[in-house]
Design brief:
The protein has about 425 residues and is of the alpha+beta class. About 25% of the residues lie in helices and about 25% in strands.
Length: about 425
């Protein structure tokens, strides 16, 4: 990799950061990666705004103290060449210096050798993953953008800013639409303006994504930074309560119904998990809408159960049963996407699984098989230290851009608490 580009600055000058804080997004020809801080400090000066950068080129100045930011208000790289370089930051056990600074280059990412044009002889157009995603969601053919002058990335590659600029200018796909009226252009511009306003206003309306489930999962696996958390859940209390509820009509609710309700209750305690990644911002939802993966192969569907946080166990049971027996009317093409997804692979005897997050959702939960397991006795009596209990492995997959490890662990702990104590 010789060059890249700054896609977005996540901090502004004067903002402080901690180890792991996302500072900016760097776009390469293969992916958009987040540059994270490795130490604490304050962003004093942004040397490069959005646009192309070379590997090793300084992009910002950081200081240890907020009071030192003002000294770099008018700082440029030409100033650094005529003055001695500031001393490196001292270790934490040494006396702090007055204004240590450091010019930080973006992370290097391996990629193929650069090409001379965004379009090859075979007609293939080179564009970043984010640019392709934005174009697809807006029904815009990315291959028409270079010919219209929207290819400002390295070596003439189409980047996300090119797609946004083309949409704002009312560019249409030449391969499908040859003419456009001024009214349609005005309408498209109004839609774009409305979307920009919505970025600062969280709403509870679920997002409808473009593409089939297979396309969404393929995109997610390529672009979403997954990580996985697994816990064991003792289902003894749920099994006992199921027997009591089944005594009335003989058709009690299932273990899955209890776990679905536990997931909805955990959202209230850790609402960050009930969110969506919207490229340039994170949208949080109050309403909990859960997709259930049903079927397999070309018959795979993901019907959605709306407003689960306000449903009772009986309502959840009836809805989930209908999903399993028939193809839900909500399962269309493109599919209706909720705010969370559950994969019950325990029905097939699978002990544990790591599900793929369904974009733009932040998390997905996989339920494993119920296995009789030897565990420590909750109340050891007469020397009995061990007992046998029905145990299930559950795995939470998270999009690290939205939910970090601590938040994911907090949600999983809340889910486990509600599942093991359903009353």
């Amino acid at each position: 990799m010789q060059t890249g580009s700054i896609a977005n600055w996540l901090l502004k000058e004067g903002d402080s950061f901690q180890p792991g804080t996302a500072i900016c997004e760097v776009e390469t020809d293969k992916a958009v990666v987040t540059y994270e801080a490795t130490d604490e400090g304050v962003l004093a000066k942004i040397l490069v705004g959005k646009g192309e950068i070379k590997v090793g080129q300084p992009i910002m100045v950081t200081v240890d103290n907020q009071s030192d930011v003002a000294a770099f208000k008018s700082f440029t790289l030409s100033d650094s060449s005529s003055t001695p370089a500031p001393a490196a930051s001292a270790p934490s056990n040494a006396a702090p210096t007055s204004a240590p600074t450091q010019a930080t280059p973006p992370p290097a990412v391996s990629s193929p050798a650069p090409i001379s044009s965004s379009t090859l002889a075979n007609g293939r157009v080179f564009a970043s993953p984010l640019a392709r995603k934005l174009a697809r969601e807006s029904s815009l053919d990315v291959s028409v953008l270079p010919s219209k002058g929207y290819a400002s990335g390295p070596n003439g590659r189409v980047i996300a800013d090119d797609v946004r600029a083309a949409l704002a200018a009312g560019v249409n796909s030449a391969t499908t639409v040859t003419t456009t009226t001024s009214a349609s252009t005005t309408q498209q511009t109004q839609v774009q303006t409305q979307q920009q306003v919505q970025t600062s206003t969280p709403v509870s309306t679920p997002v409808q994504s473009v593409g089939s489930l297979q396309e969404l999962y393929s995109l997610s696996k390529k672009t979403v930074p997954h990580y996985y958390l697994t816990v064991e859940i003792n289902l003894s209390n749920i099994q006992s309560l199921r027997k009591q509820l089944a005594g009335e009509d003989g058709e009690g609710v299932s273990v899955q119904d209890f776990l679905v309700k536990s997931a909805a209750k955990a959202m209230a305690k850790v609402p960050e998990v009930n969110s969506a990644w919207m490229d340039s911002f994170v949208r949080k939802y109050d309403q909990v809408d859960i997709n259930f993966l049903v079927g397999s192969g070309d018959k795979l569907s993901a019907p959605v159960l709306r407003d689960v946080n306000r449903l009772g166990l009986s309502s959840i049971s009836k809805a989930v049963t209908s999903f399993s027996s028939t193809k839900d009317s909500n399962d269309s093409n493109p599919p209706q996407i909720g705010t969370f997804a559950i994969h019950n692979l325990g029905l097939f005897g699978v002990k544990a699984a790591a599900p793929i997050v369904l974009p733009p959702q932040a998390c997905a939960l996989a339920l494993g098989a119920i296995v009789d397991t030897v565990i420590p006795h909750p109340k050891p009596e007469d020397g009995q230290k061990w007992t046998i209990a029905p145990v299930m492995h559950v795995t939470l997959s998270c999009d690290h851009r939205v939910v970090d490890g601590a938040v994911g662990a907090a949600w999983l702990a809340a889910f486990k608490e509600y599942a093991q104590n359903p009353l």
